[in-house]
Amino acid sequence: MPPSEVLTRFPGRLLMVGFGCIGRAVLPLLLRHTGLGPDRIRILTDKGSHRDVAEEYRVGLRVEKVTPENYRRLLGEELRAGDFLLNLSIGVSSVELIAWCREAGVLYLDACIEPWEGGYYDTTKTASQRSNYGLREEALALRRPGPSPTAVLTHGVNPGLVSHFVKQALLDIAQATGGLAGGEPKDRAGWAGLAHRLGIKVIHVAERDTQVSATAKRPGEFVNTWSVEGFAGEGCQPAELGWGTHERHFPADGHRHGYGCDSAIYLDRPGAGTRVRSWTPLEGPYHGFLITHGESVSIADYLTVREGGEVAYRPTVHYTYHPCDDAVLSIHELAGKGWRLQQWRRELGAEDIEMGMDELGVLLAGHAKNAYWYGSRLSIVQARALAPLNNATSLQTAAGVLGGVVWAMRHPDRGIVDPEEMDFREVLDAALPYLGEMVGKFTNWTPLEYRGVLFPEDVDRDDPWQFKNVRVT
Question: What is the structure's pLDDT at 420?
Fold first, then answer.
């Protein structure tokens, strides 16, 4: 039976902007757990194709495209002080919505910091300006001293829940290695200090999606288990990663941003055209795509240790994504067409998938026990049983949105916050019932395994966890 506990009772109204796969996935969870009835939830979307879902849950739906010219009018008509704006849209500026919410006294959460439509492909902007690093710096620039309406940045599953997975993984590693002297960390300095003492060199968000549809991908079609437009957009952004202090081979195509927190670098190539090595317990070693994600920047920033004004420690952090096999074929075709999105797009819903699961977690490596993966294994069968309208991928993300929304409703005056700044236990308690089996496993795997056997390779054998060894060239 799916969980039904009311986790918080929010007195205001909630407006969901965007009603794609994640919006539809999280709607029944919000009705179960926030004390909100259908009469206090509204949906604002530019597409009326899912009106039947809104009607099934008796939630009002307004079809109107949100643009730079009309967003203030639309939000003003739908929200008042004390309400909640849940931004699950594509092509609507998160920064503009956050600024409006602060003025209006409205709470806010998104699953990704988005630019206005076309922003990911805007060649008048530099690669740095199109990056998640640049978008995050714009959002953080809105911070002001003192209490203000809570605005949670980038809180789905990744970015989002994976930041809380990292904290649990750090505690697990410390417990296994005797490195938790002084007790559990209480603040940012404590968590960064723990990662430093444990010797964490790299953190991979390591994900393998094995969900399979009965209908194979056709030529000229992009198939994915979540938003095709969302995946293609982030896949065409520059590859980004948090850049660790242990690294000694700066990429020839890499660049620093030259402003902001300086926790990350970007490459002169799209993330969907950049492959990296990682490991999950069921898949074992694999090649994934270095897709840019906000957690690569924010986790690296949060775990930075400074001494005398200089960076003394920081881990390398990046996403290593192996999507469902049809999505891999879709990316290969997309790249071959000059990164111009295919005419036909198919998002696999729960009813389309025959079997498989999403194995999503964090791999922390370089410590005394080599590497440790902690995360969620959620099958399509489990997802369908736990919540309607969900496949494994959408439900993991919806669980992260739910955890973030509940936390924000309980803490309405925290201002702009990254996922790492939230209480990880409180958020995970809300999300865990929807994540399937939570697994922690140590491994002896390194990216040097089986290297140079068939052909010679230029690797750094003195330190397996150099990005030079992780990257597939």
Answer: 98
H, E, C per residue of the chain: CCCCCCCCCCCCCEEEECCCHHHHHHHHHHHHHCCCCHHHEEEEECCCCCHHHHHHCCCEEEECCCCCCCHHHHHHHHCCCCCEEEECCCCCCHHHHHHHHHHHCCEEEECCCCCCCCHHHCCCCCCCCCCHHHHHHHHHCCCCCCCEEEEECCCECCCEHHHHHHHHHHHHHHHHHCCCCCCCCCCHHHHHHHHHHHCCCEEEEEEEECCEECCCCCCCEEEECCCHHHHHHHHHCEEEEECCCCCCCCCCCEEECCCCCCCEEEEEEEHHHCEEEEEECCCEEEEEECCCCHHHHHHHHHCCEEECCEEEECCEEEEEEECCHHHHHHHHHHHHCCCCCCCEEEECCHHHEEECEEEEEEEEEEECCEEEEEEEEEEHHHHHHHCCCCCHHHHHHHHHHHHHHHHHHHCCCEEEECHHHCCHHHHHHHHHHHCCEEEEEEECCCCCCCCCCCCCCCCCCCCCCCHHHHEEC
Predicted pLDDT of residue 123: 87
> Tens of pLDDT along 90-120?
999 999 999 999 999 999 999 999 999 988 8
**DSSP classification of residue 271:** G
Q: Which SS3 state, helix, strand or coil, does residue 331 take? A: helix
Mean pLDDT, the chain, as a whole number?
Answer: 96
Confidence of residue 121 (pLDDT cuts 50, 70, 90): confident
Identify the weakest region by mean pLDDT among 173-182, 206-215, 314-323, 453-462: 173-182
pTM score, whole prediction: 0.97
Radius of gyration of the chain (CA): 21
Question: Which range (53-57, 81-85, 328-332) has the least confidence?
Answer: 53-57
Q: Is the pLDDT of residue 4 over 90?
A: no
Number of Cα atoms under 13 Å in the Cβ half of residue 357: 17
Q: d(Cα 58, Cα 44) in Å, to the nearest integer?
A: 14
d(CA 15, CA 25): 15
